[in-house]
Amino acid sequence: DGGITQSPKYLFRKEGQNVTLSCEQNLNHDAMYWYRQDPGQGLRLIYYSQIVNDFQKGDIAEGYSVSREKKESFPLTVTSAQKNPTAFYLCASSNGQGRSNQPQHFGDGTRLSIL
Amino acid sequence: RKEVEQDPGPFNVPEGATVAFNCTYSNSASQSFFWYRQDCRKEPKLLMSVYSSGNEDGRFTAQLNRASQYISLLIRDSKLSDSATYLCVVSADPGAGSYQLTFGKGTKLSVIP
What we know:
The structure holds 2 protein chains of 2 kinds. Chain A is mainly β. Chain A has no helices and 11 strands. Classes of the chains: A mainly beta, B mainly beta.
């Protein structure tokens, strides 16, 4: 089945630790995105990538980093510089190099908490 | 003015009722509009795109009013399984970068037996 796979489902971070969230898609989509959702809040864009080897900052990129070495994969690293990382992280992908007339499709998310 | 605004609800309706949600957006250059549903602690899932002429998918009807800058979602014959949060999603100004979608905070619907 085609889809977007995020792992792990739950992740705990210690103080000063970097953690990496995985996102893999087999939909052959060009564009991929990372969002953060806090309770009662809308989704906020962290980073996005329209094609391989290229990515752009979203609205809240500070404390995060990404890479896009393969079309299928867009991992997100939450660094120790992100002081409030507890949130629900959602990865999405879309066709057409991210043209906004294309809907985005989401993975089932990773819940990150601080120990 | 917030970019995408929705009434957070909750809307509590009996099974079989008709319910409508509105969503207003601030960017008159927005080109694309979508409704997503999000179940508690789950990812958003695309419900339907919203076309200029309005569109229907079974019990769901979406409308766009560009002049007043709002979109609407009508659900007829509500089912218990319709209970969820409905997210209004609007594209950014294409001239400012075509990648971005702006998500509303959602309207919560509870369908009661």
